[in-house]
Write a structure and sequence with these properties.
The protein is mostly helical. It has one domain. 80% of the residues lie in helices and 0% in strands. It has 6 helices and no strands. The chain starts with a helix and ends with a helix.
Protein backbone atom coordinates (compact mmCIF):
# COMPACT_ATOMS: atom_id res chain seq x y z
CA UNK A 1 0.00 0.00 0.00
CA UNK A 2 1.35 3.35 -1.01
CA UNK A 3 1.98 5.75 1.88
CA UNK A 4 0.73 8.72 -0.17
CA UNK A 5 -2.53 6.89 -0.88
CA UNK A 6 -2.89 6.13 2.84
CA UNK A 7 -2.37 9.78 3.67
CA UNK A 8 -4.94 10.91 1.11
CA UNK A 9 -7.46 8.36 2.40
CA UNK A 10 -6.80 9.47 5.98
CA UNK A 11 -7.21 13.13 5.06
CA UNK A 12 -10.51 12.58 3.22
CA UNK A 13 -12.02 10.45 5.95
CA UNK A 14 -10.81 13.02 8.49
CA UNK A 15 -12.81 15.65 6.64
CA UNK A 16 -15.84 13.36 6.77
CA UNK A 17 -15.31 12.95 10.52
CA UNK A 18 -15.15 16.70 11.05
CA UNK A 19 -18.62 16.95 9.56
CA UNK A 20 -19.94 14.29 11.93
CA UNK A 21 -19.91 11.34 9.53
CA UNK A 22 -17.71 8.98 11.54
CA UNK A 23 -14.73 9.22 9.23
CA UNK A 24 -12.33 7.93 11.87
CA UNK A 25 -14.05 4.56 12.06
CA UNK A 26 -14.34 4.44 8.28
CA UNK A 27 -10.64 5.16 7.91
CA UNK A 28 -9.57 2.43 10.33
CA UNK A 29 -11.78 -0.16 8.64
CA UNK A 30 -10.56 0.93 5.19
CA UNK A 31 -6.90 0.79 6.15
CA UNK A 32 -7.12 -2.59 7.86
CA UNK A 33 -9.45 -4.40 5.47
CA UNK A 34 -8.53 -2.96 2.08
CA UNK A 35 -4.95 -1.81 2.59
CA UNK A 36 -3.67 -4.60 4.81
CA UNK A 37 -2.31 -2.22 7.44
CA UNK A 38 -2.22 -3.50 11.02
CA UNK A 39 -4.81 -2.27 13.49
CA UNK A 40 -2.25 -0.35 15.55
CA UNK A 41 -0.77 1.39 12.48
CA UNK A 42 -4.25 2.26 11.19
CA UNK A 43 -5.20 3.80 14.53
CA UNK A 44 -1.91 5.73 14.54
CA UNK A 45 -2.62 7.16 11.08
CA UNK A 46 -6.12 8.06 12.26
CA UNK A 47 -4.74 9.90 15.30
CA UNK A 48 -2.11 11.78 13.28
CA UNK A 49 -4.75 13.14 10.93
CA UNK A 50 -7.22 13.87 13.71
CA UNK A 51 -5.27 16.85 15.09
CA UNK A 52 -5.27 19.14 12.00
CA UNK A 53 -8.81 18.12 11.09
CA UNK A 54 -9.99 18.81 14.65
CA UNK A 55 -8.31 22.23 14.58
CA UNK A 56 -9.95 23.13 11.27
CA UNK A 57 -13.30 21.94 12.62
CA UNK A 58 -12.78 24.03 15.76
CA UNK A 59 -12.16 27.12 13.63
CA UNK A 60 -15.16 26.40 11.40
CA UNK A 61 -17.57 25.78 14.29
CA UNK A 62 -16.16 28.69 16.28
CA UNK A 63 -16.89 31.10 13.44
CA UNK A 64 -20.46 29.79 13.40
CA UNK A 65 -20.73 30.25 17.18
CA UNK A 66 -21.42 26.56 17.74
CA UNK A 67 -18.87 26.01 20.52
CA UNK A 68 -19.47 26.12 24.25
CA UNK A 69 -16.05 27.47 25.26
CA UNK A 70 -16.42 26.52 28.93
CA UNK A 71 -16.49 22.86 27.82
CA UNK A 72 -13.25 23.01 25.82
CA UNK A 73 -10.67 22.73 28.63
CA UNK A 74 -12.21 19.66 30.33
CA UNK A 75 -12.53 18.01 26.91
CA UNK A 76 -8.89 18.69 26.08
CA UNK A 77 -7.67 17.37 29.42
CA UNK A 78 -9.78 14.21 29.46
CA UNK A 79 -9.19 13.58 25.74
CA UNK A 80 -5.43 13.87 26.17
CA UNK A 81 -5.43 11.52 29.15
CA UNK A 82 -7.61 9.06 27.24
CA UNK A 83 -5.33 9.19 24.19
CA UNK A 84 -2.23 8.51 26.31
CA UNK A 85 -3.88 5.63 28.19
CA UNK A 86 -5.34 4.23 24.97
CA UNK A 87 -1.96 4.30 23.25
CA UNK A 88 -0.35 2.51 26.18
CA UNK A 89 -3.11 -0.11 26.25
CA UNK A 90 -3.02 -0.64 22.46
CA UNK A 91 0.73 -1.28 22.53
CA UNK A 92 0.32 -3.94 25.21
CA UNK A 93 -2.82 -5.61 23.85
CA UNK A 94 -1.44 -6.28 20.35
CA UNK A 95 -2.96 -5.88 16.92
CA UNK A 96 -4.98 -9.14 16.62
CA UNK A 97 -6.83 -8.63 19.92
CA UNK A 98 -7.18 -4.91 19.26
CA UNK A 99 -8.80 -5.66 15.89
CA UNK A 100 -11.33 -7.97 17.52
CA UNK A 101 -12.12 -5.41 20.22
CA UNK A 102 -12.60 -2.72 17.55
CA UNK A 103 -14.89 -5.02 15.54
CA UNK A 104 -16.97 -5.67 18.67
CA UNK A 105 -17.15 -1.95 19.36
CA UNK A 106 -18.36 -1.28 15.79
CA UNK A 107 -20.97 -4.01 16.14
CA UNK A 108 -22.29 -2.55 19.39
CA UNK A 109 -22.41 0.98 17.96
CA UNK A 110 -24.15 -0.28 14.81
CA UNK A 111 -26.80 -2.17 16.79
CA UNK A 112 -27.36 0.84 19.04
CA UNK A 113 -27.82 3.10 16.01
CA UNK A 114 -30.29 0.69 14.42
CA UNK A 115 -32.51 0.47 17.46
CA UNK A 116 -32.18 3.86 19.15
CA UNK A 117 -34.74 6.59 18.70
CA UNK A 118 -33.57 10.13 18.24
CA UNK A 119 -35.50 13.13 19.53
CA UNK A 120 -36.57 14.17 16.03
CA UNK A 121 -37.82 10.61 15.36
CA UNK A 122 -40.02 10.67 18.50
CA UNK A 123 -42.09 13.72 17.45
Amino acid sequence: MNTVFSCIAAFLTGIAASMGLGGGMILIVFLTVFCGISQIEAQGINLVFFIPIALSSLIFHSKNKLIEWRDIIPSIVTGSIGAILGTYAAEHIGSPVLGKLFAGFLLIVGIKELFSKREKDIK
